[in-house]
Design a protein that fits this description.
12 strands; D-Maltodextrin-Binding Protein, domain 2; five-stranded mixed beta sheet
């Protein structure tokens, strides 16, 4: 009996031992599998697991910015379309300088960095680039008034007579540094204080002679600074790319396949045309051209502006002057941002206003008047007269949020937030990091609404005079 009992106990111990060993083995295999998965899981698989593409992105007109009605930017739209094709959320970490973008990249933050980065040997030594998506050249931008001084450069040796400033941590600085070894007595200035867009403005104000920028940046800026000209191309063709995190090539290969498909579909050409296809320089103060169009082009549209103005209680001449600034009274006008028609409505705004056809003269004019009225109603009753019209036009152009930001900043600067004369000095500050970093809607091309309102006021004054002359003749 004792012997039988002993055997039963031994059997139980054996079975328990086997079960414990089996459990341990299964746990060990599970851990091994987890470790194995961790080691073999690709960068793209990890992105799919978290269902999110983390992007370091530069706040700049050619990359990403907050427009009047939505987020925009060539690189932003590309990444947004890629993320949507992969069913991924696009998570942005917005930076204000290339230097900041590269610093975060070095720390391994995010999956990808988008900052209008040209691919060069120095960057390739440090970073891993994905597929290239755009080609550019670096070009010397100067004010056309240099013609009067005989200083417009036509060859590299002329650079030593110019006051040239570029961003310190830009590829333009590297380009000029290389040229410095080839040109006698040539030197240039660098700055960490001003962005490329701010340097272009300094050239336009003739505070410096020239700066260097990429051709696609100049294409967007030339509309607002028509006196600027591209003089010398300083580099051969360069390519723009996104910096990927080091590791396997899964994300790189995925982006490459998607970009090829995107390009073959024609969507890349559409996007490029959306941002860079409209290169016409607006003749803001060309009184002669405007007067000619006022007599020949405007009469067939006059009744529509008067009717829309009456419906929405807006002076019809303001609507007409605004339309000229927007489209030069061209019903088929299309800008570099894709807005279309007499009042240059975006697709989203047209949908909001129930405008079915942006190329319809009546729909566009009535839609623009309705949107104008919507913007106007967001301002308090104590804002009246020209101040009200100017604020409304600025909101129509740059977005209501940025106008609110400018008002908030005006208060901090002890300026009157309800005076256009004060606000027009504050709006340009929204392009400077030290001012916009603490504002709700971030960076804005604050010079644009100032130019916009000034131009419309100019056209308005001419039209008022023209109408008075017509009445006098009767």
């Amino acid at each position: 009996m004792k012997s039988f009992t002993f055997k039963i106990l031994m059997l139980i111990v054996f079975i328990l031992g086997y079960l414990i060993q089996l459990a341990y083995s299964q746990q060990n295999n599970t851990n091994t599998t987890k470790v194995s998965l961790s080691k073999t899981s690709t960068i793209l698989e990890k992105i799919k697991v978290k269902k999110r593409l983390d992007v370091i992105i530069l706040n700049a007109p050619v990359v990403y910015y907050v427009g009047s009605d939505d987020h925009k930017g060539f690189e932003y739209d590309l990444l947004k379309d890629y993320a949507q094709s992969m069913n991924l959320e696009l998570n942005l970490t917005i930076v204000q300088t290339v230097k900041e973008a590269l610093e975060l990249t070095r720390r391994g933050i995010g999956d990808l960095t988008a900052a209008s980065l040209s691919v060069n040997e120095e960057r390739l030594k440090e970073f891993k680039f994905g597929p290239y998506f755009h080609s550019i050249n670096e070009t010397l931008i100067c004010h056309n008034n240099l013609h009067k001084k005989g200083l417009i450069p036509t060859e590299l040796n002329h650079l030593n007579a110019l006051n040239i400033t570029v961003g310190k941590h830009t590829s333009a600085a590297k380009t000029l540094k290389a040229l410095k070894t080839k040109i006698d007595n040539f030197d240039f200035n660098t700055t960490t204080k001003f962005s490329t867009q701010e340097l272009l403005k300094k050239v336009w104000k003739q505070k410096i002679d020239c700066t260097v920028t990429d051709t696609h940046i100049f294409s967007l800026s030339q509309r607002y600074y028509p006196e600027l000209i591209s003089t010398l191309t300083l580099t051969p063709k360069l390519y723009l790319g996104w910096i990927l995190r080091k590791g396997d090539d899964s994300l790189n290969e995925s982006l490459f396949r998607w970009l090829n498909k995107y390009e073959r579909s024609g969507k890349m050409a559409e996007l490029h045309n959306f941002y860079y296809g409209f290169l016409k320089i607006f003749d803001y103060y060309d009184t002669k051209v405007f007067s000619q169009r006022l007599k020949k082009r405007f009469p067939k549209y006059e009744k529509f502006f008067k009717a829309a103005g009456k419906k929405y209680n807006i002076p019809w001449i303001i609507l007409a002057a605004q339309s000229y600034q927007e489209s030069h009274w061209n019903p088929k006008a299309k800008s570099y941002t894709g807005v279309r028609g007499m009042m240059m409505l975006t697709n989203d705004t047209a949908k909001l206003l129930n405008v079915k056809n942006r190329l319809s003269v009546t729909q566009s004019i009535y839609g623009g008047a309705k949107y104008f009225d919507m913007m106007r109603k967001n301002f308090p009753e104590n804002l009246e007269g020209k101040n009200l019209w100017a604020f409304t036009l600025a909101a129509y152009n740059v977005g209501l949020g940025h106008v609110y930001d400018a008002q908030k900043l005006a208060k901090k600067l002890n300026k009157n937030p309800y005076s256009w004369n004060d606000l027009k000095t504050v709006l340009p500050l929204l392009a400077q990091k030290k001012y916009y970093k603490n504002l709700k809607h971030g960076r804005a091309r604050g010079n644009e609404p100032v130019h916009y309102v000034d131009a419309i006021q100019h056209y308005y004054d001419i039209m008022v005079k023209y109408e008075l002359e017509k009445v006098a003749k009767k």
